[in-house]
Specification:
The protein is mainly alpha-helical. The chain has one domain: Orthogonal Bundle (YggX-like). It is 47% helix and 9% strand. It has three helices and two strands. Strands 1-2 form a two-stranded antiparallel sheet.
Length: 90
């Protein structure tokens, strides 16, 4: 059975994630408020951040940075792109 949420990013009822992405309170918050589509957008944003900032995702500093960025991406209006980001040419 599909898990539906009122997506904080799209401001409408949508299909939610199949399970929380993390075993934490923050993971539960995402599970209850973020749609699958919005989560896919976050994965793309995370990839861009890892590449733009040359982050090593296994380091605590990079993990904390990504959590902060994720919180902004979903739950605030200040989730802009890095100033150095240049979109790929199509």
């Amino acid at each position: 059975m599909a898990h539906n949420v009122f997506c904080v990013r799209y401001k409408k009822e949508m299909e939610g994630l199949d399970e929380p992405p993390f075993d934490s309170e923050f993971g539960q918050k995402i599970f209850q408020n973020v749609s699958k589509l919005a989560w896919e957008e976050w994965i793309d944003r995370q990839r861009m951040l890892l590449n733009e900032y040359r982050l090593q995702p296994w380091t605590p500093q990079a993990q904390q940075f990504l959590v902060t960025q994720m919180e902004s991406f979903f739950f605030s209006d200040s989730s802009g792109l890095p100033t150095e980001f240049v979109p790929p040419a199509e």
